[in-house]
From TrEMBL:
Superkingdom: Bacteria
Entry's localization field: Virion
Organism (species): Veillonella parvula (Staphylococcus parvulus)
Pfam families for the chain: Head-tail_con
Swiss-Prot/TrEMBL keywords: Viral genome packaging, Viral release from host cell
Cross-referenced InterPro entries: Connector_podovirus
Protein name: Portal protein
Length: 575
């Protein structure tokens, strides 16, 4: 398989130093991008501190062994986040089953069995490449960060697995959108050692300070901040080459001269789809389950603190003792304290906390947080994947919840999964992975036609189940009417119902016959039935022939014997 782009889209031309140009304007845009991002950083930190202590990397934080959970006494939000990520994983992109299928936008072309089989073949290749790559591990990390509002994932060509995926922690990147609210600018800051920079970008492309450190050899592990910007290539010319692709990709060391870059290349497609939970403005950043659960999460930590305080007061209440023995009071179990006279060592006051009320409020708050993360729904969807519950049962029990989650699912499909499949498909196509189409007639039919992606994952099916239930209910209604009027069955289009039901269930194209094949089979069956009826008629005639001949002979003999009636019937009068 040809390597179209490296893991980080870097392919410096051997021995060729890029033509120097001034990147001052680009660097200003990069700075403005991160200045706009700063408005969200404090909020993201707040969400991490009270809910998701292992998510995010802010202000150049390098020590990820330090969990930011000092304010968390009840981890239900983190547990709900794990359920959310696993639920989206099994509901939208389950590794153990198919979750998308390829078809054509043109219905007539899609009905062609050859086209369907071709798409099925390419679909199998896509699944094999995704399984071989690190897609499923990285996409799970994306879903873990999605409650923060958004999570990006980079897609790059790879010589070993075909494609390679990368996730980016919140706080390390900044994004922006165009006027259509589509994310089309991505900036990232991250640390790399001198050794890593030289290895990845090439010695000849490094700024002088990096070269000097590398030549010296004493500080190869010294870290520098590398900046990366991907944006639409407005300087694109009608030429070939990595600098004339639809999207530009530029790397440079922070603090280097304005004409020094590590790499200037590009991409044919947008390489970093952004999964967004909910978007409410044009700046690109989203809001997710953690935003919605934040008030309850803060209250929950306060309730948990009060509950633990009340328990501790009950177990270890404040004590009072005579001043002359206060320093010698033994509060250990079984301890003895000597006291003179009537003095006592006893609690200062009786603790009368109603722990049950606090526990009830904690339980209510926990449920509210779980609902914000849709944990209840995703636990139920998991039962579909395990075969414990059908999609219809889930829809009937959680129809209202599915309706609330519907916009989030649609956004993930259109903004995240669609670009992923399209990008992977294009990378594999350019690399020549797909078998060529040898049928010229089929090739002409496919020319200029758009491939459509349909989703058949458990969550997508649960969303579609309403249409399937409508079909079943209408059919049951027609059959009930047919008891009084059998002709009403003709109102039901059985062929179209079978097609619609099969498509919504994601049945493989090889299993569903095309309309032409179906009509041909009906014609063959009708012809076979007609031939069978004709054969039966001939057989019946052959069986009746001996009896008719015998009857004719007997009638003739009787007429010859002088039976006037038979002679008249046989026209033998006067014989």
């Amino acid at each position: 398989m040809a390597e179209m782009e490296s893991l980080l889209a870097r392919q410096p031309t051997e021995g060729v130093k890029p033509v120097r140009r001034d990147y001052t304007k680009l660097r200003k845009k990069f700075s403005q991008l991160f200045n706009a991002q700063q408005r969200y950083v404090n909020k993201w930190k707040h969400l991490r501190d009270y809910q998701l202590p292992f998510i995010g990397q802010f202000d150049g934080e390098e020590d990820q062994s330090e969990p930011y959970n000092g304010k968390i006494l009840n981890p239900v939000a983190w547990e709900s986040c794990q359920i959310f990520a696993s639920g989206v994983m099994s509901g939208l992109t389950p590794p153990s089953r198919k979750w998308f299928k390829l078809t054509m936008e043109n219905i007539d072309v899609a009905a062609n069995s050859q086209v369907a089989e071709l798409l099925d073949e390419r679909e199998e290749i896509l699944y094999a490449v995704l399984a071989k790559s690190n897609f499923y591990s990285v996409v799970h990390q994306v879903y873990m960060e999605l409650p923060m509002g958004q999570a990006p994932m980079g897609i790059f060509a790879d010589s070993e697995s075909g494609v390679r995926f990368t996730s980016y922690p919140i706080g390390t990147y900044a994004i922006s959108t165009n006027s259509k609210e589509i994310v089309n600018i991505f900036g990232r800051k991250y640390k790399m050692t001198v050794d890593q920079i030289v290895e990845q970008f090439g010695y000849e492309n490094c700024p002088d300070n990096i070269k000097n450190i590398y030549d010296n050899g004493n500080s190869l592990q010294q870290s520098f901040t590398v900046n990366w910007l991907v944006e639409p290539n407005k300087d694109r010319k009608d030429k070939l080459g990595r600098r004339n692709m639809p999207y530009s990709s530029i790397y440079w060391v922070e603090g280097s001269n304005s004409d020094e870059v590590l790499y200037h290349g590009g991409f044919e497609e947008w390489p970093i789809p952004i999964a967004r939970h909910t978007s409410m403005d044009l700046n690109g950043y989203g809001k997710g389950a953690a935003w919605f659960a934040q008030p309850d999460s803060q209250m929950l930590q306060k309730l948990e603190f009060d509950y633990l305080t009340a328990v501790e007061l009950g177990v270890k209440p404040p004590m009072q003792a005579p001043s002359d023995v206060i320093s010698t009071v033994n509060l250990y179990p079984g301890g003895i304290t000597e006291i003179e006279g009537q003095h006592k060592v006893e609690p200062m006051f009786a603790v009368q906390s109603n722990l049950q009320d606090i526990q009830n409020k904690i339980a209510v708050t926990e449920d509210s947080i779980k609902r914000a993360y849709s944990a209840d729904l995703f636990l139920m969807l998991d039962q579909i994947d395990k075969g414990q519950m059908t999609a219809r049962e889930v829809m009937e029990r959680t129809q209202e919840k599915l309706q609330q989650l519907g916009p989030v699912v649609e956004r993930l499909l259109s903004e995240f999964l669609n670009p992923i499949i399209e990008r992977v498909y294009a990378v594999l196509d350019r690399a020549g992975v797909f078998p060529p189409v040898e049928d010229e007639e089929l090739l002409d039919q496919l020319n200029g036609q758009e491939v459509k992606i349909e989703y058949i994952s458990p969550l997508a099916q649960a969303q579609k189940m309403s249409s399937l239930v409508n079909i079943e209910q209408y059919f049951a209604f027609i059959m009930s009417l047919a008891q009084a009027n059998p002709n009403i069955v003709n109102k039901f289009n059985f062929e179209e119902a079978a097609n619609t039901y099969g498509v919504n269930l994601g049945v493989p194209a090889k299993i569903i016959r095309s309309d032409d094949e179906y009509q041909e089979i009906l014609a063959q069956q009708a012809q076979a039935q007609a031939e069978q009826e004709q054969q039966q008629q001939l057989m019946q005639a052959a069986q009746l022939a001996p009896g008719m001949a015998q009857a004719a002979k007997q009638a003739t003999d009787a007429a010859n014997d002088g039976n006037p009636a038979l002679q008249s019937w046989l026209g033998m009068d006067g014989v």
